[in-house]
Amino acid sequence: MRTRRSGLILLEVLALGLFLLFVFPFFIVLINSAKGAFEVTDRPMALPGDWGRLFANAARIWTSENIQYQSSFVSSVVITAGSLFLLSLLSAQAAWALVRTKTRTSSAFFLVFVAAMVVPFQIVMFPLLTWFRTVTELTGIPLLRNYSGILLAYVGFGLSQSIFMYHGFIKSIPLELEEAALIDGCKRHEIFYLIISPILRPIHATVLVLNGIWIWNDYLLPVLVLGKGNRVMTIPLAISNFAGAYVKQWDLIMTAILMAMVPVIVFFLFAQKSIIKGMVAGSIK
Amino acid sequence: MRLKRDQSLVFWLFLAPVLFAFAMVIVVPFILGSFYSFTDWSSNARVSGGPHFVGIANYLNSFADPSFVYSFIITTAYTVANMAAINLLAFALALLVTSKLRFRNFYRAGFFVPNLIGGLILGYIWQFIFNNAVPTLGSLLGLSSWALPENLLLARSGSALVAIVIAGTWQYAGYIMVIYVAAIENVPIELHEAAQIDGAGPWRRMRAITLPMVSQAFTITMFLTLVNSFKQFDVNISLTSGGPSTMFLDKPIFGTELLAMNIFNTAFISNRLAEGQARAVIFFVVLAVASTLQVRSNKRKEIEL
To answer: What tens digit of pLDDT does each residue of B88-118 get?
Structure first.
């Protein structure tokens, strides 16, 4: 019994050590966000002399013309929220149509969507730009360096997995529910909005979490479709513009990073259970 | 009959938006891209007025370019190292947070959180740690050699690659951990109780019960870490931006330029768009073959276990 006890204590120590190792980078960001340019490179491991500096740094970043943090934050919110709304609505509709229509076309579409999940972004990214430019020339609709193009791109790249997840969920909803509604005089499309949509709540959460984390943090797609130094920028773009510069202002970079992480971490603290559940579900399917 | 027509109308109306988006960003670019990789396509080209056919020249040029060959080698090494590091650590973490530790839920959240931060941002964090925090830590510990510029982890291509593994592992281990946790928690407790009564110790129970019962999870985690490591781009850009430079086949090249970055740089920095596209096609084929082989071999092991 004694060895068992000391074994458990050893595990506690090990776990605590690993935990501290894991949060160490966050700690580094936090303490260095409250320092000046000299202090940050001279004493990166020391606690800051004046925590009030944190707010001064944050205010500088928020208002700096150079970094464009404010407008990037707004753009990131617009792009993430807009893509999530479109993605969840359109994918759920499509998945329902695919499940409830048993034709050869329907199953062929589903197969193509599933197959597209293995296509890496790298193989379509260059032609995507040429294609978008051509479409803009032909129709006059601006797709590059603009919200419309990036929303379309996120819907296009996210829909395969989303449809797949909705498809799996909708299959388990009993058909009798819809037949009863039809008999009661419900129109076919109304069935989706009135009967099916409310049932989809748990799977909506999963789809939103998975895609939300991807879109909020994504760098490669925005850098290609929006481009650097554009009016519309996301937070990762703004940070790479600023932090990738030759002269590194680490004090401000650390604060900018902290400001980019805080919304995500706050969101995680509130929705920890559904985030972890959603991400596990996304991986296993 | 009216019902049937109604149904097919709704079917097409509901599918139209996703089919449109899918065609615009995947189908058309995929077809164009496969075609462009055999042409002299350049960055100012349009779809009409088209580029000229050059056969497999772009593919041959790619393999003749030392930077691409080098990139392939280090990406393979990086993928193997990253898969091993992430899975070993993640499995250990999963065992820890499913044991009877007092703060296990707290630990679980802490291990998972790096996964929510984008690769680009955390690359900058680790750049600061390796270049600024570690040397200072060294001098605090009385190891002043840590502060010498040539001893920095990011100063040499080999160790800089290790640095990307460290950052990549830190980011991804918590995610893989929660998959293992889900699998471990699914193992019926009766199995462990029965084995314990039969006198099996913790090590024996791990080998005879836990490992076989979670073998299905290994197929998934191996697949995810393989694909994720092979596609690494964000951390690469922000942590090393491909540097430091090194020599390979008598040519100076980027020392930590992984494949995704090599494809990107070929197209936009060297301005050889068609060749970048050819490399992307090679990248896709290799990734598809490697992940298929991996899933197949893991599935076979699942049955053996």
So the answer is: 999 999 999 988 888 888 899 899 999 999 9
Under DSSP, is residue B174 helix (H, G, I), strand (E, B) or coil? Answer: helix
Domain count within chain A: 1
Which two tokens mark A98?
Answer: 């695919």
Q: Give A155's contacts in chain B (Cβ within 8 Å).
A: 17-18, 21
CATH label of the domain that carries residue A178: 1.10.3720.10
Which DSSP symbol is given to B149? G
Query: Which of 1.20.1440.230, 1.10.10.10, 2.40.160.10, 1.10.3720.10 would CATH assign to domain B58-304?
Result: 1.10.3720.10
The SS3 call for residue B39 is strand
Query: Least CA distance to A98: which residue of chain B?
Result: B11
| DSSP summary character for residue B301 | H
Chain B residues close to A128, C-beta within 8 Å? 25, 29
In Å, the largest CA–CA distance within chain B is 86
- What residues have CB less than 8 Å from B75, skipping those under 6 apart? B230, B232, B258, B259
Any domain includes A77:
yes
> Which 8-state DSSP code applies to residue B247?
E
SS (H, E, C) B61-123: HHHHCHHHHHHHHHHHHHHHHHHHHHHHHHHHHHHHHHCCCCCHHHHHHHHHHHHHCCHHHHH
Torsion of CA A219, A225, A231, A235, to 10 degrees: -10
User: What pLDDT, in 10s, does the model give residues A121-167?
Assistant: 999 999 999 899 989 988 988 888 889 999 999 999 999 999 999 99
Chain B residues within an 8 Å CB radius of A120: 231, 280, 283-284, 287
Are A277 and A49 in contact by the 8 Å Cβ rule? The answer is: no
A100 located within any domain:
yes
Residue A124 corresponds to which tokens in the numbers above?
A: 């379509």
Check if the beta carbon of residue B118 is closer than 8 Å to that of residue A31: no
Angle between helical axes of B273-304 and B57-64 (0-180°, round to 10) = 70
Number of residues in chain B: 305
